[in-house]
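Each field is listed here:
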Amino acid sequence: MKKLYFLLITCVFYIFISGIITENVYAQDNNFVKLPNAFSPNGDNINDVWVWEAEQIEMFQIHIYDRWGKLIFRSSDIDQGWDGNDMSGNPVALDTYIYYIEGRKAGHGNFLQKGSVLLLR
């Protein structure tokens, strides 16, 4: 999604020369992986797995950390999703978790995406 911003630059060089430049600038949304901001792995078969959507991703690595920086989950399988368990298979507590996604999208190169997800039980 492109967003249009109006940019105004004013330049003053000493006292004698000044100028104003106006330009329309488009900012590109580089969140190549679409993720919900919450899920509820409580066994009701509704939003039990935190899944992401992405197209034309050539390389993918996700790391999920708790609020103290402990690595809870990691995967390089873009189709796996996270079921709310740690890497030992133990359910983690209701909390907000931080994720980092490193990847490469065809035609765009490498990217880093980060954010948070709320796990509800």
Notes: The two ends are 33 Å apart (CA to CA). Residues 32-119 form a domain with the Immunoglobulin-like fold (CATH 2.60.40.1220). The beta strands are 2-13, 17-28, 38-39, 57-65, 71-75, 95-105, 109-119. Residues 72 and 88 are 9 Å apart (CA to CA).
